Amino acid sequence: MTDLPNTETETVEFKKSLAELKQGLISLAAMLNKHGEAELWFGIAPNGEPVGLSITEKTLRDVSQAVSAHIEPKIYPEITRQAIAQKSCLRVQARGQ
Length: 97
Prior knowledge:
Layout: E1 12-15, H1 21-35, E2 37-42, H2 57-70, E3 78-84, E4 87-95
Parallel strand pairs: 1-2
Antiparallel strand pairs: 2-4, 3-4
């Protein structure tokens, strides 16, 4: 189990589902541009409540490919499945400009 930040900050953002992947990538790029680090969580409601996701190897690959295809210059985020309150969530953590 990973410690989940209590709230969204200038370097942490929550997305309820992968339907918000595009908005998440925009936020990821903005956080990296401004702060040089970013943490994006999928499966967490904006209020910080874990809602969970169904995460497969394909899910991890799809998110990785989306980051690679849409963020320039290239970044190499750490994309991991995390259990928060017995719910599967996806954490995308990156550093860079």
